[in-house]
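# nightly structure sweep
# worker-07 picked up a monomer target from the shared queue
# config: single-sequence mode, recycle default, output format = structure tokens
# input follows
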Amino acid sequence: FLIILLVLVLVVILPIVLIIIALASSTINFVLNINNNNNNSNIAGFIRSAINLALNFFERLLRQHDSISNVLQLFGRNALSPRQTNF
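# output follows
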């Protein structure tokens, strides 16, 4: 039961928390960039920074995907299968 709980935390809850943290930091950076870019000369820089924020967010998601794959390899491919649970 503890192994199932550990897998549930690592595969479901932890990625959700990390996605929320990534979205919150991206939103804060987005608002700060809006406040800092008031004139037309900085619009290109603002667009570049928004693209960089999006790329950083997707890079974090890909890193998280690798860690999820590692956890599934450690516990086996059928770790989340309902047939493997013994209640």
